[in-house]
Design brief:
Blueprint (H helix, E strand, L loop, with lengths): L1 H9 L2 H26 L6 H26 L6 E3 L1 H22 L6 H22 L1 E3 L1 E5 L1 H24 L7 H20 L1 E5 L10 H46 L3 E6 L2 E5 L1 H6 L27 E6 L7 E9 L9 E8 L1 H15 L9 H13 L6 E10 L1 H8 L1 H18 L5 E6 L2 E8 L5 H13 L2 E2 L4 E2 L2 E9 L6 H17 L5 E3 L2 H20 L5 E10 L5 E11 L5 E2 L1 H11 L2 H17 L6 E5 L2 H4 L4 H12 L6 E5 L1 H6 L1 H13 L3 E7 L5 H7 L4 E4 L2 H4 L5 H17 L3 E3 L5 H10 L3 E3 L16 H12 L8
Parallel strand pairs: 15-16, 18-20, 20-21, 21-22, 22-23, 23-24, 24-25
Antiparallel strand pairs: 1-2, 3-4, 5-6, 5-9, 7-8, 8-9, 10-12, 10-15, 11-12, 13-14, 17-18, 17-25, 18-19
Helix pairs in contact: 1-7, 2-3, 2-7, 2-8, 3-4, 3-5, 3-8, 4-5, 5-6, 5-7, 6-7, 12-13, 13-14, 16-17, 18-20, 20-22
Bound molecules: ligand C2E and calcium ion (2 copies).
């Protein structure tokens, strides 16, 4: 009653209402800022504490001050400025303390902070009252004072207890009501605790009441300004957070990875990608548990990538990669867990595809070389008693023809069909692979060698049956070689080698298309390989040398030049004929360094001669196919100082056939250097005549086979005559090779041949000795002596 009568009797109710408005608004703002402070990031905490404390302090103080102005004790009133100011300081400092404690996370932090808030209100009130000066005696009722303090502390505690219970952004009405109640209760209980006994009876003159009301509104305005500032900064903050959130949502929605935000095991949000992954409605996901789809979520390490399965109600589990993050904010609530899920199915499918491509031939889908080697190694590694493994090497006959005539697409189609039929012909335990081109291998475990023939027969049927390409029907043959492990070879690479050898034998055979490996086959091949190996070392070990064979002008018997012939004498003194090793050197490309050596050596040596005879160096088609040849010849001529006009290069027709245009181009470049070009072994090729037309040769070298056949019958003589006539009409001098007898020499002279070369004039010798053999000289000597025929010689 006393409180009530104090309120109604001694107060200006309009100002009380103003104070109440101030208090309600202030409390709402204070609590808002307190919530913001609770969830503030570490670095922003002090700022929000300060902002909240200023607003709260202003709230308490302004409410108090406006209410004080509303109070009319009936005597003159004054406020001591220092203490009034101090009371504001107390309100703010107390609020700092109260908010700091209330926002902490220990058990009764909110309640304790609330109690401190109550004390702050109390302290402010009684400090403010100390500034209250009247011409009267003020009596205090200790009971009311005590009640006011206890009431403020209890209501403060309850206020923050409720505030904490409220959510992140939800203000709560209860807390606001309690706060308002706390402040108001304290104030008016505090006022009721006070009895004022004036020194002189009040005369009733109202002391500048108008002015007081202006002050009260001013205070209220300032108070609202402060509160408004706090609210505005909070609003700005909210807005920027809302924008950040929208941006984040766009980002999350746009992500191709599934994203889920979970708190306390419940989904707060999930993006469309996740909804699609678990085949669920976007909105229906909120409130679900993620563990419904993914087991063992709690064991996932934060920050690491883990593979897991998404289990669906129907269908196979989906393999995913999960990354987990927590929001990392030190707020009172359970942390936000953010899960990013990547569907691994496309990647796994890709990996499977790549693995398949790595192990299979992309055209026929048969296993490829790598798979074949693995399979064969595995088969031959098992030791299963007297079990043998047969390896079948296959090569298609006439496949190149199909390619050439019908095009590569047709060839591919043929291979695909053959691949299908081969696969269909296989029985359990049998294996077939495509190694490339038209090469296939098959593997089958057998007990006896002959058992492999069953598979060979089936494969032959699969391969040789014609294939209809729509516009044409094509077919090819098969050559098949069989080698058996462990009979023929102990290791895989030797076994493959043996099967290949047998296959080559089958290819060469006119009577059969299937051959078993036999040991003798090896001999020739091994020999060949040995020579190639030795050939590689020959250059380094200087086993090569040059021989010179004289060439002479038929009319006078004078030396016209020398042909350079390569000699190889191996370290143990064995002589290997160039006819044997040149083809091998060409096959292996070794002819390039060897040919260069010959050219350089021959030019260097000829350059030292006192007589400037010409030299003829043989060129391999391989050398001619090499772009650098004209440059190399030029360089060697400069290096050795040999005049280009003394160098003649001999080329055979084979070089011209493979790529006529290119070869003639290279030859023209060589000719521009001043070097002359001779056509070697003329008459042995397919189309000697057309070759002659393609390029202006400087000399024709008639092959030596015509000489040896000259005695045999009239045909050779006729051909020689024809060639000589041809040379004459084309104005190309002709040199006859392989002249061994005087008869041949006579014949050639009768027919008007230009030059000769052969054993009769001189064998190839390590040095060029500037004369022809005596046997040949006889021809010209006899001439001088008279018409004595030397037919008898
Ligand atoms: P080719 O160019 O036709 O060389 C002439 C071959 O005939 C030489 O054999 C020579 O010794 C031989 N010959 C010479 N006169 C007579 C004779 O009156 N009667 C018989 N029966 N043979 C005679 P060679 O030295 O064994 O050379 C064989 C082949 O090796 C050469 O045939 C040539 O194609 C090739 N050759 C030799 N040296 C080289 C070289 O440095 N480079 C290249 N690319 N090939 C070379
Ligand atoms: Ca030659
Ligand atoms: Ca020749």
């Amino acid at each position: 009653m006393r409180i009530l009568s104090c309120l109604t009797g001694e107060h200006n109710l309009m100002l009380v209402a103003l104070a109440a408005v101030l208090c309600v608004v202030g409390s709402a703002v204070s609590l808002r800022l307190f919530q913001r402070l609770r969830y503030a990031e570490k670095g922003a905490r002090t700022a929000w504490t300060f902002m909240g404390a200023v607003a709260t302090g202003a709230n308490i103080w302004c409410t108090h001050f406006v209410a004080m102005i509303a109070y009319d004790p009936g005597v003159a009133v004054a406020y001591e400025p220092m203490l009034t100011g101090l009371s504001l300081g107390v309100a703010i400092a107390g609020s700092v303390l109260a908010l700091t404690v209330a926002a902490r996370r220990f058990r009764f932090a909110a309640e304790l902070g609330g109690a401190l808030f109550g004390l702050a209100v109390t302290a402010m009130h009684y400090t403010g009252m100390a500034a209250f000066a009247v011409e009267a005696v003020i009596l205090w009722s200790p009971v009311y004072v005590a009640v006011s303090v206890v009431g403020a502390v209890v209501l403060g505690g309850l206020t923050f207890n409720r505030a904490r219970a409220a959510g992140r952004n939800g203000g709560t009405l209860a807390a606001a009501v309690l706060m308002v109640g706390g402040i108001v209760t304290l104030h008016f209980t505090g006022m009721a605790a006070m009895t004022i006994i004036p020194f002189a009876p009040a005369v009733g003159e109202v002391t500048a009441e108008q002015a007081n009301i202006v002050v009260a509104f001013a205070v209220a305005a300032v108070g609202l300004l402060v509160l408004g500032t706090g609210l505005a900064s909070h609003a700005l903050d909210m807005q920027s957070r809302a924008q950040a959130k929208i941006r984040l949502e766009h980002l999350v929605e746009g992500s191709v990875d599934g994203m889920v935000v979970e708190q306390d095991g419940r989904i707060l949000a999930a993006n469309a990608a996740f909804a699609a992954l678990v085949d669920s409605d976007h909105d229906a996901l909120v409130g679900e548990t993620l563990s419904r789809w993914i087991a063992g979520l709690d064991d996932l390490a934060v920050g690491a990538l883990t593979q897991a399965d998404v289990r669906l109600e129907q269908g196979a589990p989906i393999p995913v990669e999960i990354a987990v993050r927590s929001d990392g904010l030190e707020t009172g609530d359970a942390p936000l867990m953010i899960y990013a899920l990547r569907d691994l199915r496309p990647r796994l499918a890709q990996e499977r595809r790549i693995a398949h491509l790595a192990r299979n031939d992309s055209l026929t889908n048969l296993p490829n070389r790598a798979s074949f080697l693995e399979w064969l190694t595995k088969q031959t590694a098992q030791d299963s008693g007297n079990q043998k493994v047969a390896l079948l090497a296959m090569d298609l006959d006439r496949f190149k023809e199909v390619n050439d005539i019908h095009g590569h697409a047709a060839g591919d189609q043929l291979l695909v069909r053959i691949g299908e039929r081969m696969r269909a012909a296989l029985r359990p335990g049998e294996f077939v692979a495509r190694l490339g081109g038209d090469e296939f291998m098959a593997v089958v475990p057998v007990e006896r060698r002959e058992d492999a023939l069953s598979l060979a027969d089936r494969l032959r049927d699969a391969i040789v049956a014609p294939v209809d390409l729509g516009h044409a029907e094509v077919a090819c043959g098969l050559s098949l070689g069989i080698a058996v492990w462990p009979d023929d070879a102990a290791d895989v690479s030797a076994l493959i080698n043996d099967a290949d050898l047998a296959m080559y034998r089958a290819k060469a055979s006119l009577t059969t298309d299937v051959c078993f490996y036999e040991e003798e086959m090896d001999e020739a091949v091994r020999n060949r390989r040995r020579i190639i190996q030795q050939l590689r070392e020959a250059l380094d070990q200087e086993q090569f040398s040059l021989n010179w064979q004289v060439q002479a002008t038929l009319e006078t018997g004078e030396v016209s030049g020398y042909e350079v012939l390569l000699r190889w004498i191996q370290a143990d003194g064995t002589f290997v004929s160039p006819a044997d090793f040149i083809p091998l050197a060409e096959e292996t490309g070794l002819i390039l360094p060897i040919g260069e050596w010959v050219l350089r050596k021959a030019c260097a040596e000829a350059a030292t001669w006192s007589e400037p005879h010409k030299i003829a160096v043989n060129l391999s088609p391989v050398q001619l196919g090499h772009v650098d040849l004209p440059r190399l010849v030029h360089q060697i001529l400069i290096e050795t100082g040999l005049s280009p006009s003394r160098l003649e290069l001999e080329i055979t027709e084979t070089a011209m056939i493979s790529d006529l245009e290119r070869t003639t181009h290279v030859l023209r470049q060589l000719k521009l250097l001043g070097v002359s070009i001779a056509m070697d072994d003329f008459g042995t090729g397919y189309s000697s005549l057309s070759t002659l037309r393609a390029f202006p040769f400087d000399k024709i070298k008639l092959d030596r086979s015509f000489m040896s056949e000259l005695d045999g019958g009239p045909q050779s003589a006729a051909i020689i005559r024809a060639v000589l006539a041809l040379g004459e009409s084309l104005e190309i001098p002709v040199l006859a090779e392989g002249v061994e007898t005087m008869e041949q020499l006579h014949f050639l002279r009768e027919q008007g041949c230009d030059e000769v070369q052969g054993y009769l004039l001189g064998r190839p010798k390590p040095v060029a000795d500037n004369h022809i053999q005596d046997a040949a000289k006889a021809l010209w000597r006899d001439d001088l002596d008279g018409p004595v025929m030397i037919q008898a010689a």
